[in-house]
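Board notes (copied after class):
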Amino acid sequence: MDKLPEPEFGRDLNWPRLLTGVDPLIQQSNGKFNMYFLGLSVASLFRYYREVTFYKKNYAMAAGVTVGFLFSSYNIAKFLCDDPYVLAAAENNVNEEKFISEYTSLYKNAKEKGLHIPNNLIV
């Protein structure tokens, strides 16, 4: 019976992901968020402002309701525009940079102590 060859595990060669980062995706998400937030808040505030001025309702309550509308518009826009992949990739990049710096410091400490480290382990 044929056996599959053992897989070779090497170092991570996917460095362009770290070099380019997720900044363009975050900027795109922020632009979409601004558009949604502006649209939702203007629509809801205009509707309530028209009711207050047309029907001459309580202006103090209008100020409180306005804050509530802005808060809910912010949360709805954030919910619609946050991309979990982008947030996870940004967090992953931060963790990888921490790992690389820690690995480098461990490598330097091992070299100072005179330990032999194989070249295929060096990142």
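Comment from the instructor: The mean pLDDT is 79. The CA atoms of residues 44 and 69 lie 7 Å apart.
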